[in-house]
Design goal:
single chain; Elongation Factor Tu (Ef-tu), domain 3; Rossmann fold; 5 domains; six-stranded mixed beta sheet; about 25% helix; 14 helices; alpha+beta; Alpha-Beta Plaits
Length: about 600
């Protein structure tokens, strides 16, 4: 067991692309944790999709041994966290397991929205924070300006911020010394009853569920019988170890240490994140406070393009749910699309990542319906229902009022683009709460309806600000508004995948835009197709897609006009019959494009 004063547990927090994973690579490389021949970029990002997009999705951990200048060898447990707002849940979990944070700020770009969001999580978790200025080798780097900005905007001391370039390795030894000198050692009693926090878990096809733990008090050894306090399950430990990124077995873990265990656990569902692990006999009675469970905010339907793939999709979704505790799913059926699943996500990036993984890892072609949020419907009889899918909206005569989720969005934007950002938020029914300046950048705080944000707000924000704005949000609760369900009818048949909730004042414009869009996207058929937008029984917009017409009178040269008329009447009757029984094929691309409104 390691002496507590020689352990340091820390996480790296930063905005997207400020260099967290690269800094983690350099720390691992400098301390010789991984042999040079095994080194690769983004070493801790193990999923293909993380490497491709250059983002971190799962928080990853590694144990580093560092011989410091004072002659002692320290054990550093590092957790590399995601920077995207959709994965803020991963960040908050990792924060609870460590005592300090390295706050990485890009010396050319300065403090961004996600920097703020993540650093506030670290402050809430009572962390000691060491600011690190990355990318100082860039010609555009302004370390002094960024130091001031950290002090003004975040309010933490930054005069002794460590200047580094994670790419070239400049200043990395100073970071290691700062971790040892400035971050606190963990506290804990090795002789007390075992108390360990379950930080994360994932499914491994050979070992079963691998559980990442942080020991608070007591000791844990291989062969011990343990009990999960929230789920009540008891298990015998088969294997105990640490990540150096590769798994390395170890005889015991003591207070302050971070490691993993396997215990023939079959499902990730049996390991609740934030649970307290203790010994089956003589365990502790007091569980740790744990984490709040994650709440999905965006819902959408996933359907296989070929309905014969439904069973494969079910298996794939269940396997993904094993590794991702924040992803929820239930079965649903749709008249247009057949059998599929209604899935809940933490945000749009989370939705894209899950969809990409299903298509890539399990080779299933998917149709995704319009993302929607959860509405609260208050009925006339006083009860309240949650509405996940606009197609399930009850009859309006029984509904008293509808409430929609609102978010508090923080947007940091250079002065030049402020007008465009305010207009964008105003167009999305936003209410301005605050506007302050930090140097030449404005920090705007808006109260926005979540359903206006989920679809393409982020893309629009990036395009009106040429990519310079950064955006972060948190849920603030529900508020009543004049919302209605708009249906799209194609050839008089409602297409449930295109049902959406809209604000009454905007319904007509939105309906018209959608009909026009579908008119371009649906291929022409042998019969005329009306495309309509309706609210309840009232049609608010209509477009007509003309029929493809065969020239049936081509063979008539001269002769009586009644011959032509007869052929034309025959064609007309055929088209009428076709329209009655004809099926309209709507291509998959039309669903997605019709829903991306403002483009």
């Amino acid at each position: 067991m390691t002496d507590l004063s020689r352990i340091r547990n820390f996480s790296i927090v930063a905005h997207i692309d400020h260099g967290k994973s690269t800094l983690a690579d350099r720390l691992i490389q400098m301390t010789g944790t991984v042999a040079e021949r095994d080194m690769q970029e983004q070493l801790l990002d193990s999923m293909d999709i993380e490497r491709e997009r250059g983002i971190t999705i799962k928080a990853n951990t590694v144990r580093i041994e560092y011989p410091a200048k004072d002659g002692q060898t320290y054990i550093l447990n590092l957790i590399d966290t995601p920077g995207h707002v959709d994965f803020a849940y991963e960040v908050s979990r990792s924060m609870q397991a460590v005592e300090g944070s390295l706050l990485v700020v890009d010396a050319s770009q300065g403090v961004e929205a996600q920097t703020l969001a993540n650093v506030y999580q670290a402050i809430d978790a009572d962390h000691e924070i060491v600011p690190v200025l990355n990318k100082i080798d860039l010609p555009a780097a302004e370390p002094d300006r960024v130091r001031e900005q950290i002090e003004d905007v975040i309010g933490i001391e930054a005069h002794d911020a460590v200047e580094i370039s994670a790419k070239t390795g400049l200043g990395i030894p100073d970071v290691l010394e700062a971790i040892v000198q400035r971050l606190p050692a963990p506290k804990g009693d090795p002789d007390a009853a075992l108390k360990a926090m379950l930080v994360d878990s994932y499914y491994d096809p050979y070992l079963g569920v691998v559980v990442l733990i942080r020991v608070i008090d007591g000791k844990i050894r291989k062969g011990d019988k343990i009990r999960m306090m929230a789920t009540g399950g008891t298990y015998g430990i088969d294997r105990l170890g640490v990540f150096k990124p590769v798994m390395q077995d170890i005889a015991e873990l003591g207070p302050g240490e971070i490691g993993f265990l396997t215990a023939s656990i079959k499902q990730v569902r049996d390991t609740r994140v934030g649970d307290t692990i203790t010994h089956e006999k003589h365990g502790t009675d007091q569980p740790l406070p744990g984490f709040k469970p994650s709440q999905p905010v965006v819902f959408c339907g996933l359907f296989p393009v070929d309905s014969a793939d439904f069973e494969d999709l079910r298996d794939a979704i269940e396997k993904l749910a094993l590794n991702d505790a924040s992803f929820s799913h239930e079965m649903e059926t749709s008249a247009a699309l057949g059998f599929g699943f209604r899935c809940g996500f933490l945000g749009l990036l989370h939705l894209e990542v899950i969809r990409d993984r299903l298509e890539r890892e399990y080779d299933i072609e998917l149709i995704t319906t319009a993302p929607s949020v959860i509405y609260h419907i208050y009925m006339r009889d006083g009860s309240m229902r949650e509405l996940h899918n606009p197609a399930d909206m009850p009859d309006l005569t029984h509904v008293d009022r509808l409430e929609e989720p609102r978010i508090k969005a923080t947007i940091l934007v250079p002065d030049d683009y402020l007008g465009d950002v305010l207009k964008l938020c105003q167009d999305r029914r936003g209410v301005q709460l605050d506007l302050t300046y930090a140097g030449s950048r404005a920090m705007v705080v808006y109260d926005l309806p979540l359903n206006e944000v989920v679809f393409d707000f982020y893309d629009r924000l990036k395009s009106v600000t040429k990519g310079y704005a950064s955006f972060d949000y948190q849920m603030i609760g529900y508020r009543e508004d004049a919302l209605v369900k708009m249906q799209i009818l194609v050839n008089d048949e409602p297409v449930d995948a295109l049902s959406i909730m809209v604000h009454r004042d905007r319904a007509e414009a939105r309906g018209r835009a959608m009909c026009e869009k579908l008119k371009e996207l649906i291929p022409r058929h042998m019969f005329k197709i009306p495309i309509q937008a309706a609210i309840g029984g009232r049609i608010i917009a209509r477009e007509t897609l003309a029929a493809l017409r065969k020239d049936v009178t081509a063979k008539c040269y001269g002769g009586d006009a009644t011959r032509k008329r007869k052929l034309l009447d025959k064609q007309k009757a055929g088209k009428k019959k076709m329209r009655q029984f004809g099926k309209v094929e709507i291509p998959q691309s039309a669903f997605i494009s019709a829903l991306k409104m403002d483009s």
